[in-house]
What we know:
Layout: H1 2-16, E1 23-27, E2 38-39, H2 49-55, E3 64-71, H3 82-86, E4 93-101, E5 104-113, H4 119-134, H5 143-147, E6 150-152
Parallel strand pairs: 1-6, 2-3
Antiparallel strand pairs: 1-5, 3-4, 4-5
Amino acid sequence: MKSTVFFMTLLLLTACEEKRKPVIFMDTNVQLPMSCLKLNPLENEKKFDATLKKLYTFKGNCPHQLTLSYKKDIVCNSGYNASGQSLGKFPKSFLKLEVRKGFTMEYSYYIDLLNNVDSDDVEEGFATLKKDILNASEGKNEKSHIANYATFK
């Protein structure tokens, strides 16, 4: 009996620490690897500029433009989300990294987070982006890794 209670408690505690998976879209017509990225100066969230600039040297004349957006402290008062909120699995924030060339979206990384966005989340998202589209020809990117993502044209 004690072992059953212990096992159920352990199961409950580990299930609550579930790591959300990102949703990634990639245009199948994009030529990989991309040779450069430009940080969007108008729409980018200033809070994480230093983090991004620490991770990558952005080029001002690059046609591929990266935009980081996020929202924190999400509160939804809708009755439709009551079960999600009561179980504690309702996201508190989201992070989105988009790469566009002109008006065409080439790559998008989106993740719902159970805590507010911090520098570690930005670093993890950018590491995934970098592996997918910047280091694609250096052997660091496996074809099966990209094949699991949703693609669009």
